[in-house]
Design brief:
alpha/beta; 7-stranded parallel β-sheet; 12 helices; 47% helix; 14% strand
Length: 276
């Protein structure tokens, strides 16, 4: 039985959990089933209670207190513990039908999927090596205010590209919190960030000691030509729905749903006529 999911990721403060909440609300309004998995062992406040919470297995607070680790080391320990107890995920996700969209909310420490193979290993279990066979798409969020600092934007874009290469699953890259830049960044200028344009750095101060490094990073992104962004405003239902449609296309969700046979439509019409 097919399963479908999206892995919501990105740096701290990008609005991942806020996006998860907006996505869940949109799914419910459209009468679609979803299963919300919190994979952040430090998260506490939720608008929608997770259907599965990693804190029921291990919490960052307990690890830091008992192991004497800092936040980053503790987080890595939590995920290594999760990888040793993958039945925690498998047992919860196994019964889900193909009608569900599994929404997995990750913490914001990008080293989990760019520097160490923790999240890549988890993804392989969910998609290929385990029994779940989830068709998975990553939704990578980058805060739209990064466009104001162009070097910072290209660094964020590079981290998105790194995640795409490391995880080897379809990606939807998203500029979140678009309401924060409306009116401050002209629409024509913003389009140059949606498909990252390396010439954006040409306006930077030539005396900037990091200019050559920034240009090299931008050129690397341009050479791979992998990253483009969608715009997200979680207050706009159409914006959330648009992002969901890209995710659905990436995981081929609608193709797996059971089609209605022509005689079903005729039967429904006949029932309506009889009721009339």
């Amino acid at each position: 039985m097919s399963k479908f999911g999206t892995l919501v990721m990105g740096p701290a403060g990008a609005g991942k959990t806020t996006f998860c909440n907006a996505l869940i609300q949109h799914l419910r309004l459209n009468k679609r089933s979803c299963f919300y998995v919190n994979l952040d062992p430090a998260a506490e406040d939720f608008s929608y209670e997770p259907d599965l919470d990693i804190k029921d297995l291990i919490s960052l607070e307990d690890v830091m207190e008992e192991m004497g680790l800092g936040p980053n080391g503790g987080l890595i320990f939590c995920f290594e513990h999760l990888l040793q107890n993958l039945d925690f995920l498998t047992n919860a996700l196994e019964p889900l039908s193909e009608e569900y969209l599994i929404v997995l909310d990750l913490p914001g420490q990008i080293e989990l999927y760019t520097h160490i193979p923790v999240v890549p290993t988890l993804v392989k279990h969910l998609t290929r090596f385990g029994s779940l066979n989830v068709s998975l798409c990553a939704a990578y969020l980058l805060e739209s205010t990064f466009v104001i600092d162009r070097a910072k934007f290209f660094a964020g874009t590079l981290s998105a590209m790194s995640a795409m290469i490391m995880l080897e699953i379809p990606h939807v890259n998203i500029l979140s919190k678009m309401d924060l830049v409306k009116g401050s960044v002209p629409k024509r200028q913003l389009k140059r960030f949606l498909d990252p344009d390396t010439s954006l750095l040409d306006d930077n101060n030539a005396q900037n000691p990091s200019r050559r490094l920034n240009k090299a990073v931008a050129q690397l992104i341009d050479d791979f030509s992998m990253v483009s962004f969608l715009q997200l405003d979680v207050q706009d239902e159409d914006s959330v729905g648009g992002i969901l449609s890209y995710i659905d296309d990436a995981i081929q969700y609608h193709e797996a749903q059971e089609p209605r046979e022509p005689h079903d439509e005729i039967a429904d019409y006949g029932d309506d006529e009889m009721m009339g």
